[in-house]
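Structure ticket #2291
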Amino acid sequence: MAVRGAETDNGAPFVQLSLFASEDGDPTESLPAAIGAAEIPSGAGEPSAEAAPEAMAAGVTEVEASRVRQRPRPATLEAAIVEYKQFLVAENRAKHTQMSFGLDLKLFLEHLGDRGLGQIGESDLRSFISWVRIERNNSAVSVRRKVASLKNFFAYLYRERLIPHDPALRLIYPETYPALPEFLEDHKVDDLLAAAAEHLFWDALLSLMLDTGLKRDEVVALGWGDVSLGENEERGSYLVVRDTEQAKRLRSRRLEISEEVADKLRAYRAELKVRERFFDVSARGVNFIVEVCGARAHTVTRGKKLTPQILRETFAVRKMRSMVREEEALRQAGLEEETVAALIEAHDVQLLRLLGLHEEPESAKKYRKLVYGWSEPGHTPASPTTEA
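Resolution: structure written out below.
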């Protein structure tokens, strides 16, 4: 692009642009008549003192930098929500996250009305939270999600300098008391696997679910090539959960497989021909196998039958118990409480990652409650149970 200075008939300066250089290489040649010329007031193409170094370093011309500065930015709530949703897509946030934030902000817009961003204050946000809690009778879990949506949205607006301050900064998440999940103690796990042992397919299926915490839909979607059974000794045995149509709301991740379960899977694999899916079974088939084995093992649950979700919760509780033992060992070895607290937080996040859940430490609280047995937030826990 070529830039040339000139004057109009009345002496006013303007800048003329050209997309093509002249035949003799003169960069000041004007645009062809068929395309026309762009007249820009003198000085409009000069970047500010702050923008100039960055623009020039990136190879951006003065006029192009000016156009970037002149790009319209959202000034109203509705326009800002549209831009924020585009940001979530560009950040490759999970589809479920995009949908949840989008629905919450749409509700916020309907409640507040489309107004200027500078006219929205903390009182407006608190009014919205009170409205969904009282008028719409949303649960504490639902309200927490809406608070999270507002905090993320207004933090984004503040980072982008669309608002002078963040009105959501002082919003507080409502306390939640998550229902304690149902799980199987170790002796019941042994009984369940004994009931499945006579069927190679069933034994491999239940063993893997208890060993990795896979959700039912993830088991159904598991591909033959997603399972590595120690072919590479350095990496050991593991499986990979991928984003598929059958398990599209869950996060992709890599899960270790214990050697005991890997042996069962090798025996199962040796009896079958290679196929697309590792377990050729439907979601209803998984339910049936778990239910039948539970009945044979005389497993008593709060419901009428054993479910895949209880196996998943069993994995989580057993994993948390292992983590708590490590924390207690370090505490007894004299490690500073501040360091132990950091380890506890890291363990909570690690467990949620293994389960493919959002990394909100509060979500791991229910598993710690099952280990320690306390009921009030902040209560000093007694010695953890020692069962594996």
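Closing remark: The first strand starts at residue 2 and ends at 7.
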